[in-house]
Amino acid sequence: MDCTTNLSSLEPKEIARLVLNVNDNAANAFIQLIRRRLSILERPLTTARGDGKSYIYANFNPEYAQMAITILRTYYNFCLPYESRNIKKTPAQRLGIAKKVFELKDILYLR
Predict the structure, then answer these.
(1) What is the DSSP letter of 47?
(2) How far apart are CA 5 and CA 2, in angstroms?
(3) What percentage of the chain reaches a pLDDT higher than 70?
(4) 82 pairs with which residues across the strands?
(5) CA separation (Å) from 37 to 40, 73, 107?
(6) 104 with 75: CB under 8 angstroms?
(7) 28, 35, 57, 33: which is closest to 44 by C-alpha?
(8) Does the structure show a pLDDT above 60 at 76?
(9) pLDDT the model gives residue 102
(10) Nearest 5°: CA angle at 15, between 14 and 19?
(11) What is the three-state SS of 47-86?
(12) What is the number of helices (H) and of strands (E) in the chain?
């Protein structure tokens, strides 16, 4: 449900039921995947002396971070299946825009 969705045909009880069933599990899972798999977007490390943060592995060019997130998003949606209700599918398969689980080389070489 989007804030621009036309809800005029629905009863207030139906709208309330839809709103109560909204969750952000998929968005949280993707954000956690970004934090775990992209070192350029990791939180800074604490120095051994404890006097501050170390940005030794940080990349300060946001263009590279955007490119890395795009690659990870494509991998997440088309290559990384997860199991729900005993069915293992990628998010793209669940939406009906892909018919198979792709391998990373399929994405990189446009197969």
Answers:
(1) P
(2) 5
(3) 78
(4) 89
(5) 9, 11, 18
(6) yes
(7) 57
(8) yes
(9) 92
(10) 120
(11) CCCCCCEECCCCCCCHHHHHHHHHHHHHHHHHCCCEEECC
(12) 5, 4
Choose among 58, 63, 19: nearest CA to 39.
Answer: 58
Q: Distance (Å, rounded) from C-alpha 91 to C-alpha 58?
A: 30
Residue range 80-103, pLDDT digits in tens: 888 888 889 988 898 889 999 999
Quote the tokens at residue 83: 């199991």
Full-prediction pTM beyond 0.85?
A: no
The tally of CA atoms less than 13 A away on the side-chain side of residue 90 is 18
Return the higher-pLDDT residue of 78 and 55. Answer: 78
56: which residues sit within 8 A by CB, 6+ positions away? 45
Q: What is the pLDDT of residue 59?
A: 63
Structural tokens at position 28: 């949280």
Q: What percent of the chain stands above pLDDT 90? A: 6
Q: Which residue's structure tokens are 């993707």?
A: 30
Q: Can you give the residue ranges of every domain in the chain?
A: 12-108
